[in-house]
């Protein structure tokens, strides 16, 4: 019988794999997150991004003027950060096994128990307690490019990143190129990087890395918000820490992801025209 570790700890996140009933498990990736309130007088250095306490943030893409956070605005941001990320990433995937693997009791036959993928975030008060530390700025400008340093378990976001925004991009649709507007919530895209996911077309920040075709552009790791089975890879990879094969049969068990529920279409083709009806 497969040996099951219920709880696992790690530097990037903790996880638990718990039976819900005889045919269903829940696997939750558990993040302890420290959100750092960056004020105009805050000093910090993150590679080429830094602030010296004079109200100016220096970055690869320019200089940005920092505003102060109102106390209520900061508390709202912390609360909304948790709800926005969990709502988008938690309970969105189901892992189906290729064969029966789990006997609920020792005297029973194996069944093909499925695994529901969850995600939880707990805010903590210090980087020492945290898996991930994110600095949050309040720039006057709206063109700051938020980012995650996944190996360093850090990131830099703005006060606007919890809201959905439209982005217009030239996008290939069939044999034509159209102007398409894509709706995306920046923090959900960046949290995908925290999970270890790359852009839809691989590592890099050129326009093509965010997709070329419509199906690529609308991807969560492109310009849009569409989740696909590929985005469940962090949960599938994590399973190796929870399920320890005991027999050769166990080593042949694998899991395949599917998206748990329908999703909204979050793009608009600005160049779409209704098909013309041939004259009779």
From TrEMBL:
Lineage, opening ranks: Bacteria, Pseudomonadati, Bacteroidota, Cytophagia, Cytophagales
Organism domain of life: Bacteria
Name of the protein: Matrixin
């Amino acid at each position: 019988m497969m040996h099951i570790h219920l709880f696992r700890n790690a530097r990037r996140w903790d996880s638990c794999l718990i039976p819900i009933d005889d045919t269903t498990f829940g696997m939750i990736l558990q993040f302890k997150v420290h959100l750092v309130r960056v004020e105009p007088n805050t000093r910090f250095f993150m590679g080429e991004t830094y602030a010296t306490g004079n109200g100016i943030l220096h970055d690869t893409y320019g200089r940005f003027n920092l505003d102060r956070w109102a106390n209520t605005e900061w508390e709202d941001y912390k609360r909304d950060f948790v709800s926005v990320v969990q709502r988008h990433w938690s309970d969105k995937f189901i892992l189906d096994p290729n064969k029966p693997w789990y006997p609920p009791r020792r005297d029973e036959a194996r069944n093909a128990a499925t695994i529901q993928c969850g995600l939880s975030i707990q805010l903590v008060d210090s980087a020492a307690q945290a898996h991930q530390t994110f600095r949050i700025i309040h720039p006057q400008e709206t063109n700051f490019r938020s980012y995650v340093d996944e190996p360093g378990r850090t990131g830099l976001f703005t006060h606007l990143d919890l809201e959905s925004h439209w982005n217009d991009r030239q996008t290939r649709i069939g044999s034509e190129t159209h102007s398409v507007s894509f709706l995306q919530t920046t923090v959900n895209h960046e949290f995908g990087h925290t999970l270890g996911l790359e852009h839809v077309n691989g590592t890099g920040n050129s326009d093509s890395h965010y997709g070329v075709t419509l199906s690529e552009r609308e991807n969560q790791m492109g310009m849009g918000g569409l989740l696909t089975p590929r985005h469940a890879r962090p949960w599938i990879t994590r399973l190796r820490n929870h399920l320890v094969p005991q027999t050769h049969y166990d080593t042949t068990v694998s899991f395949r992801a599917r998206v748990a529920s329908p999703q909204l279409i979050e793009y608009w083709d600005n160049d779409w025209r209704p098909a013309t009806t041939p004259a009779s």
